[in-house]
Specification:
Structural class: alpha/beta
GO biological process, one term: pantothenate biosynthetic process
Subunit structure: Homodecamer; pentamer of dimers.
GO molecular function, one term: methyltransferase activity
Number of domains: 2
Order of helices and strands: HEHEHHEHEHEHHEHEEHHH
Catalytic activity: (6R)-5,10-methylene-5,6,7,8-tetrahydrofolate + 3-methyl-2-oxobutanoate + H2O = 2-dehydropantoate + (6S)-5,6,7,8-tetrahydrofolate
Keywords: Cytoplasm, Magnesium, Metal-binding, Methyltransferase, Pantothenate biosynthesis, Transferase
CATH topology of the largest domain: TIM Barrel
CATH architecture of the largest domain: Alpha-Beta Barrel
């Protein structure tokens, strides 16, 4: 969009105060980034979910800093007027603060992201604080945290009892206090997500967290069933079946190549008659000279 400008974190907080929801979607390459920007998305997340939907991994754990830098740069080239957040991948912010800041620097300087996202609650708040003090905007991520899937025992709904709800609230408040400008709530019960959203001043972005967050985020491939086979998810609404369209399109292409109906006459380029005639005359002359020279031997 020619007249579109990237949001700032100040504008996002104002949108929360005014009750204007934020829209966010993942993107992993130049083309998808272009399309979602043209559609008017507020924010793009270059998620480590690329491990699943782009690389074919079973979890996000194998994703590296190099992967995130590469994909972020592609997305930034496609969506230069949209606020872009990049995931810090597994175990890139749990070592020393010097090592963490080196990884953050790569995302920001080499990838050209506007902000980073980090999974975790109170246990990462000191790190969040130091990153924010270094001038880098941070969005938190609590609830289901895919990088901890082995520790929490699977992809389980969070906030189902009072103790877990209290844990999530305390994590959210701690992240706000540490300087995070927003928090992703993943697979959190709607009631708990709503209460957390009311109790903090920074925006909450829900994914499977109900109707009352300050914004919503979904994975690009989920929006369009861009997978084979596609596994439906309760918290996802499908806005187009790209997977079926691609399969049917490629199948038709294969058929037409095999039966020679593609390319058709309207797909080819032809030379002017005099060019063809001149070319053929010259070719016949060369052939005649070649045969003559062969006979000399």
């Amino acid at each position: 969009m020619a007249n579109k400008h990237a949001l700032s974190i100040v504008k996002m907080k104002k949108m929360k105060q005014e009750g204007v929801p934020l829209s966010m979607v993942t993107a992993y390459d130049y083309s998808s980034a272009q399309l979602v920007e043209e559609a008017g998305i507020d924010m793009i997340l270059v998620g480590d979910s690329l491990g699943n939907v782009v690389q074919g991994e079973h979890t996000t754990l194998p994703v590296t800093i190099e992967d995130m830098v590469y994909h972020t740069r592609a997305v930034v080239r496609g969506a230069g007027n949209t606020f872009i957040v990049t995931d810090m991948p597994f175990m890139t912010y749990h070592g020393s603060i010097d090592e963490t800041l080196r990884n953050v620097r790569r995302i920001m300087q080499e990838g050209h992201a506007h902000a980073i996202k980090m999974e975790g609650g109170r246990e990462i708040c000191e790190t969040v604080k130091k990153i924010v003090q270094a001038g880098v905007p941070v969005i938190g991520h609590i609830g289901l945290t895919p990088q901890s899937v082995n520790q929490i025992g699977g992809y389980l709904i969070q906030g189902k009892d009072e103790q877990d709800a209290q844990r999530l609230l305390e994590d959210a408040k701690a992240l706000e206090q540490a300087g995070a400008f927003g928090i992703v709530l993943e697979l959190v019960t709607e009631e708990v997500a709503r209460f957390i959203s009311e109790q903090i001043s920074i925006p909450t972005i829900g994914i499977g967290a109900g109707r009352y967050c300050d914004g919503q985020v979904l994975v690009f491939h989920d929006l369009f069933q861009y997978a084979s086979p596609y596994r439906s998810k309760r918290f996802v609404k499908t806005y187009g079946d790209v997977g079926t369209m691609i399969r049917e399109g490629v199948s038709q292409y294969v058929k037409e190549v095999k039966d020679r109906s593609f390319p058709a006459e309207n797909h080819v380029f032809t030379a002017e008659d005099h060019v063809v005639e001149s070319y053929m005359v010259n070719q016949r002359r060369r052939c005649t000279l070649h045969e003559s020279s062969q006979n000399d031997y």
